[in-house]
Write the structure tokens for this entry.
Amino acid sequence: MHISEGVLSPPVLLAGAAITAVGTAIGLKKLDYDRIMTVSLLTATFFVASLIHVPIGPGNVHLLLGGLMGIVLGWSCFPAILVALLLQSLFFNFGGILVLGVNTTIMALPALICFYIFRPWVEKNGHKRKIAAFGAGFCSILLSACIAALALWSTDQGFARAAQLILAAHIPLMIIEGIITMFTVSFLAKVQPEFLIMGK
Amino acid sequence: MHRITLYQLLFILLLVPALCSPCFAHKVRIFAWRDGDHIITESKFSGGRPTQNATVSVVETKTGQTLLSGTTDRDGMFSFPVPQTGSKELQIIVSAGDGHKNNWTYTLEDSSAESNNTPPPVTSETIRPSLQPVSEEIQEKELQAITASEIARIVNTALDKKLAPIERTLAENSDKDPSLQDILGGIGYILGLAGIAAYMQSRKKQQGGGS
């Protein structure tokens, strides 16, 4: 899901950077003292999760955990994902500095959308929470793939082929992320409920 | 209680591979080496999976002109004959189509240097015995000269063949996968940033309380 340097055109890069700047500013403003450790813990998780490789399906994909970030962090997922992606591009050579804005948008915007759709259900008990967590994990990847394909619209192979490639590669990941998010959220709800309730 | 231990186990299972197998990553990489009169390129995702049906294009670094392009096969390989151009540096670019792209700089220097260096010593050897009028000897020397260049050529091709796998391994290893140090370093940075954020917030609180 990390788009490489030199693939996208300047308008796309600028649009991504603008969305990321706005999201990060709002996210930092909403970040209060008590949640700093939660945000940094999930940033570290996101940073490491992309090294877990899912060898199923036609493509080569790794975990993203965007849904989990969104559900727990809300708007703060923007600064969290920005920092994690910056470190990934510096340490692992994933993506790049110039495409940082676009890559952050690809992963953080779906997380935020999932926060607004699924967060109310996560706060409820029982099966509703599990279904909502699965939905968040599933939809965050689906939306990320769609936004990535949109960003690739302007490249030489066009939207249709990029969308086809990315969606096909990420279908197994959607299900896996859904399951992982479901287990993680219900685990956190049992063991560390205050970790989840903080995301307002 | 049983359920909690199950979830805990799953959570640990999720974290363990993250620390133990840092070789999985998601970016495309390409590397190239020379085998005789062909340049062979191999592309793969750094998880180790070959990049199939990816576009590979060869660009002259100086002029920015695309010399040739093609697609990788099932094993992520693509080979092309050594291009006859003036410039010594080539950019070999792979594009996987889903936003992943990388390049490899290939230098043609070594091969052209070899072909330029072999003839001069042969001519200097053949000039020296020209003082003697015996024609047989000259022929013998010429024969020797021919065999010397011939031998050089044979040795070169043999070396090319022997060295190709070594060159491939060298090229493959030039791009390192994330190591444990990288991961721990990144986590350290995140904790440091959290510390800075906490410090700023606490200062804000203190200032707000004081005024």
